[in-house]
Amino acid sequence: MGCLGCLSILLIGVIFYYLVTISWMSAFSFSILVLAVMVIFRFKMKRDQRNKIQFNLQRVESLKTQLKDFTILKEYVSPQIESALFFDGKNKKIAIVTEDLSKRRIYPVQDIIASVVKEDGKIVAKATNSKKSKTTLTDHLNNDQSILSQVEQERNEKKNKITRLELMLVVEDKENPVHVISFLSTERLDFQGRSLPVKRTSETYLQAKNQCKEWHKLIAKSID
After folding, report:
1. Each residue of 46-87: pLDDT tens digit?
2. Could you tell me the end-to-end alpha-carbon distance of the chain, in angstroms, rounded to an integer?
3. pTM of this prediction?
């Protein structure tokens, strides 16, 4: 549980204690004070997030200059600037940057085993390399831990909302066979600092869906 979540539970407990032991006016004043602290903390968290995004944008530009013998035909950077994709159509290579831009891998497109589009952890599209073994792909799909809980899934489906849209690339790499790129993330956060779901009719989701679809089609065509 995030700091804001813990603070909320503490607030409820303290207010209950004050209601039992002291006057309503004192309890109300104290609750206003704690709420003010929560607002300030949330503002600081969002400010830190914006600063991180700006810093990572500079890192992305620096990273692009480090791609030697790589002609960028198409590029994508995730909404929170935590991952990126670069495609070299001339040399048939793809650069995958993940883990808050700390991990970078470059692969020939023929090393890609599969491209999988997932919405809230559920597979909605899949393209596989017919020349590669499907064992690696099957193993990783069966062990996928990114699927939302049943409660979250039902809540999102009922409200026609979505929390995550991801492109999962499975490559011929024993050390790092799976790479996940986020295509959907909003600035609206819950008390644990996680992105809140958005409506499937929203412009945010529709743009993310189109971007993810373009990349999936590009990779599918390259490995066909």
Report:
1. 666 666 666 667 888 888 888 989 999 999 998 888 899 999
2. 43
3. 0.70
Query: Which amino acid is residue 114, in one-letter code?
Result: A
User: Which amino acid, 44?
Assistant: K
* Cα–Cα dist 165/123, whole Å: 10
pLDDT in tens, 82-115: 899 999 999 999 999 998 888 899 999 999 999 9
| Tens digit of each residue's pLDDT (9 = 90 or more) over 13-34 | 655 555 555 555 565 666 676 6
The three-state DSSP-derived secondary structure of the chain is CCHHHHHHHHHHHHHHHHHHHCCHHHHHHHHHHHHHHHHHHHHHHHHHHHHHHHHHHHHHHHHHHCCCCCCCCEEEECCCCCCEEEEECCCCEEEEEECCCCEEEEEEHHHEEEEEEEECCEEEEEEECCCCCCHHHHHHHHCCCCCCCHHHHHHHHHCCEECCEEEEEEECCCCCCEEEEECCCCCCECCCCCECCEECCCHHHHHHHHHHHHHHHHHHHHHC
User: 165-171 and 112-119: which strand pairing?
Assistant: antiparallel
Q: HSE-up of 43 (CA within 13 Å, CB side)?
A: 6
Q: Is 172 within 8 Å of 132 (Cβ atoms)?
A: yes
Partner residues linked to 96 by β-bridges:
85, 105
